[in-house]
Specification:
With about 60 residues, this protein is α+β, with helices and mostly antiparallel strands. It has one helix at about 25-30, and strands at about 1-5, 15-20, 45-50, 50-55.
Amino acid sequence: MHSTKTTASGAARRPVYAFHLTPAEWHRLLADRSFLADPDNSFSPRRLMGVPVEIIPDHRFIVGC
């Protein structure tokens, strides 16, 4: 699991951090029944600890890894 800085879309244009997870990592979190019980976690929109989650095919796609 990685966290990188991305640019927010919309008028604010301020830095936003997002977790980058592979589909397998995201499904592993969803398999834990207590994951969605936490109000900071969400399936739609994808959020982990209140931070947006972006699904990537592979961690090699993240620049700087």
